[in-house]
Amino acid sequence: MRFTSLRMLDGRAALAATLVSLSFGAAAAACSSGESTTQTNAASSSAVGSGGATAASSSSSSSAESSSSAGGGGASSSSSSVASSSSSSSSSSSAGSGGAGGQGGAGGAAPVCDPDPAGATSHSLHDIWVANSSTPVQYWVPGVYVTAVSKGGCVAGTSCQIFVQQLEQFASLAAGSQQALKIFISAAKAADFTGIAAGDRIDLNAQAWRDTSQGANELLFEVTQAHLGCAKKVGTGTPVPVLVTLDDLSVTSYENTIGPLLVKVNTVTGTPAGASETFGLYKTGSFVDAGADTLTSLSPFFLTTGAFNGLTTGQRTDFASVTGVFGLFSPTAMPTAKYEEIYPRSDADYASHSPSP
What we know:
Strand order of the largest sheet: 6-7-8-10-9
Number of domains: 2
Strand content: 25-35%
Largest sheet: 5 strands, mixed, barrel
Order of helices and strands: EEEEEHEEHEEEEEHEEEEEE
Distance between the termini: 57 Å
Shape: globular
Structural class: mainly beta
Helix content: under 10%
Number of strands: 18
């Protein structure tokens, strides 16, 4: 059974995929404000993982953009639980390919997060990278940290996405590689994930696999009526970005090694376009007139409002640093096109800036 789901239609406007031209020391953005992507997946089964380890691990994100705030989250000992209910569509059980498989769903029954699922085998996010399943496998992944949530939090009736990583902090980019994944949540299931915010530590029970449909190549969790999942807040933390350079960030590195890791880049320059548009970044003092498909852009689509604040359109700007989740954007109209993005979660993630001399 094949299904199509919108991966983050942010509700502002349909994607116009307009590229802002690079000019006079300004790198360009790759897309306009209404970013969205479409995903088709050939699986509606609740899967039981099996088989030996497979070392292949690559990930891509034809990532749809939506806005999100950094939302630190104060200390809270209370445990909020969100769980998706069983869908009306029937689900068959299929074997996950490769890797040490996850805990299988029981005949379409909704997975359990609170209390912890009885007898479930715990997995890390890196385990899922190593397994690299081509079909949906149900995984119980306790204690991961939320680095970003679209529009600051999921809203009932609107598809959303949540980025998670294994630890609050990693010593290096190598240590943080293959330690993060995205959770896509359909509009029908978004209400089950309200209350989850950046900075939360959560237990997750959901299906993950590598989506290769329509030019995508993304390893991710997905929660829909056909692929059930839940999450439970068990604490809070303060995820710390990994320091990287723009040269570290590429489509290939995202798909094969890094994934949606929280990163920080120092000393970069760009020329803001409209407040709700992305714009390209380059190392300050070393502009190269590269194409949009090789640039890394700063995107506003994970900010609460979906727009930058305090930046002047057309003014070349030096940033002491920018922080955000590393990802890819693929326009719905061009699903095979992939643009590198850094997604700040709040204005503080790009606040240290000044006009370029």
